[in-house]
Amino acid sequence: MKILVVCLGNICRSPLGEGILKSKLPENFVVDSVGTISMHEGKKPDERSIEIAKNHGIDISKQRARPITKADLENFDHIYCMDLSVYEDVISMAKNEEQRKKISLFLEAAGNNGENNEVPDPYWGNLADFENVYQMIDEASSKIAQKLVN
Ligand code: 4NP
């Protein structure tokens, strides 16, 4: 099973999603993350994401950012998007219904329904915003991992 987590830059939210989901899933799961923009390609995650993850015992410092490609929509089984604008961008890349069905919001995949289905972009915020995002992603990842394993 191959899981892809997507945000805008692939330096703040989706690296956390990748690291946290990986920590909750069996070894035979592949978990990767990408961004919809290529601006940060090749860079490490944001220092604040690295620090927050480290505080929770997860090392995301070896990750490197890359932009999503059309091949990703073919190769991954589930594609989880951090917010609606990312979701719209990824959906617009899908070439058929089979690909569209793989794509969902990260929080919806965790079973959230209603209005708060987006993980907010913490890039312009402070460490507390990163911690808040970490908690949202951590809680959702537990639920997603449980669903994927069952
Ligand atoms: P991310 O956060 O999508 O969670 O990685 C952002 C990172 C960079 C930018 C925006 C959001 N940026 O505008 O460069």
How would you describe this structure to a colleague?
This protein has a single domain, classed as 3-Layer(aba) Sandwich (Rossmann fold), CATH 3.40.50.2300. The model has no long low-confidence stretch (mean pLDDT 97). With 150 residues, the protein is α/β, with parallel strands linked by helices. A 4-stranded parallel β-sheet has the order 2-1-3-4, with helices on both faces. It contains 7 helices and 4 strands, in the order βαβααβααβαα. The two termini are 13 Å apart. The site of 4-nitrophenyl phosphate has 11 residues, from loops.
Task: From the structure above, extract its key features.
150 residues; Rossmann fold; 4 strands; binds 4-nitrophenyl phosphate; 4-stranded parallel beta sheet
Structural topology:
Layout: E1 2-7, H1 13-24, E2 30-35, H2 47-55, H3 70-75, E3 78-81, H4 84-91, H5 97-102, E4 103-105, H6 106-109, H7 127-149
Parallel strand pairs: 1-2, 1-3, 3-4
How would you sum up this structure in a few lines?
The chain is α/β, with parallel strands linked by helices and 150 residues long. It has helices spanning 13-24, 47-55, 70-75, 84-91, 97-102, 106-109, 127-149; strands spanning 2-7, 30-35, 78-81, 103-105. 4-nitrophenyl phosphate binds at residues 7-13, 35, 39, 121, 123.
What ranges have pLDDT less than 50 throughout 5 or more consecutive residues? none
**N- and C-termini, Cα separation:** 13 Å
> What amount of the residues lies in strands?
5-15%
> Using only CA atoms, what is the Rg?
14 Å
Overall mean pLDDT stands at 97
Query: Helical proportion?
Result: 40-55%
The CATH homologous superfamily is called Response regulator
Q: What is the CATH T-level topology? A: Rossmann fold
What's the SSE pattern? EHEHHEHHEHH
Counting copies of identical and different chains, the oligomeric state is single chain
The CATH architecture is: 3-Layer(aba) Sandwich
Order of strands across the biggest sheet? Answer: 2-1-3-4
CATH class: Alpha Beta
The shape, in one word, is globular
